[in-house]
## 1
Amino acid sequence: MGREKIIKNLQVRVRHADPVHIIADFDYSFIQHGNTPLVNMTNSGKYNSILPPEASPGIDLPLCSCYSLVSIMKNRADSRINLIESLSRRKFLFGSLAFSGAVFADAWLRQPTDLEVSQTRLPISKIPSGKELRVVHLSDLHLHRYDRYFRQVAAATSTLNPDLILLTGDYVEEARNLSGVLDFLAQLKAPAGVFAVQGNWEYWALIEGKNLRDKFRSKGVELLINQRADIDYKGVAISILGIDFPSPSGSVQQLNDAAEKSRVNIALSHVPAFQHEIMDDTSDLILCGHTHGGQVRLPMLKPFHLPRHSGRFVDGLYRVGKKDTPLYVTRGIGTSIMPLRFFCPPEINLIRLVGV
Ligand SMILES: [Fe+2]
């Protein structure tokens, strides 16, 4: 065999008519960078150097024949390179498109309904030791139809055996979908009650206020509009402080002033940046939604977008105020604006308030 130096993984091998005798080996880049191989060989006087060891100098090959062979092989090699590059480009393009399509389909068709149940255990000193209050927190339904997915959400909620179900707003995006929300709400059952507050979308869909409260009440859900609801359940005195959207500081202050510190005070607000500082130390737990956790994310990176009034909150458990009050922001159930989720699954949040 002749000396082989493959630079671009392509070798041009010139053979004599007798295929056993290789008379020249070139790597492609050698041909590519020289003027022509033959001229190089002739000029450099290295004609013999490209002959393989087994090719004796006695081979009778006219220079012009060699030149022709080399030229033909060079053209073939160029064609092959062009073909390979063209196929590689097509493969890359097709692969990229197929990958992007698969990612988009997953973010559109699977991930928005890939429901996750998160569980958080919080010790509360106002709850007697040995007792536990199971709170299921749902938010941001953005329901278009009461379909299979929402039946699954209702069933999963029921499976968690909640004592109390709390909802933090954004039930619809359009008033015409309210009947589906009411069908969904009718499925939610908890012995200590189901309580809700309004989000920004209730205002944008123009369904907010007393009418909505009456409709929710007909399904067993108490909608709190800057109101407090008291429950006494299993010997535990609980107050739900329902903060409306928007939440001017006056309303938050009034609720805070009316709260009794001896009760377990659970504040509900659609948005997490609602001047919670006013009631951080009165509340034992603050529940919020609104952010959707960013909805479309990449691992380890901050969300691309968070809506106004999210503040520093994205999702999960935070601690606020002098008492390190737990403030939980759920990723919610539905999707907003774009029907997509990516690395940010929808969430049912079970919070176990345990006595200490
Ligand atoms: Fe929302």
## 2
Amino acid sequence: MPNRVQWSPGYNMGHETLDREHQNILAQCNVLADCISDAAQESDQTFQQTFNTLMAQAAEHFATEEALLTQSGYPMLEEHQNEHDEFDYLANEIITTENFEKIELQRFLSLWWVGHIVGSGKKYRGHLELMAPSPPRQITLALPTKTAATPGSAAG
Ligand SMILES: [Fe+2]
């Protein structure tokens, strides 16, 4: 059985872009599940296209996430980057094995992504909340006091 995943409110990171990207990726996992359940021949092609889309979305998401964590000075950035590298490695391992099974790939992707979302939430949701831009502060400008350089006062 393919592993269908459902978005849970607990998956929200409170960051619009990251949440949207996570949701889109889980949606692709479910399209892959549909392709496996569907016996039609075109579903093989749809599976491949969906997998490619998911990998492109994953690459974009990792870039977004790394940029955000870098900007905000996340202390465990390297560990997070390793997780992304590990994903690329494992996904590529599965598709190049001789006994490549679509269901194995679908199950790997859905479990990995739920794990990533839940794990990221635990690891850096608090960090992002701390780093979220606070409402604009009132800035008091130190205006220069009137000097002798006013019109008509220049030394002649
Ligand atoms: Fe993520």
## 3
Amino acid sequence: MYICLCNNINSKKVNYALEKGVSSTKKIYSFYKCKPKCGKCIDLMNCIVEKDADKIKSL
Ligand code: FES
């Protein structure tokens, strides 16, 4: 599933970054040497970083 279309970041990439010890949304973008562009993915990214499954379902 794509999380951030602007930067081509899918859930696999987010999980990989989390496994590598990345601990915040901001750091996920820097891990992939990019920055949020449109910002539509920020909420979803936050939920994934916080492992908030209920919030993810409601988005
Ligand atoms: S979808 Fe992530 S910045 Fe646009």
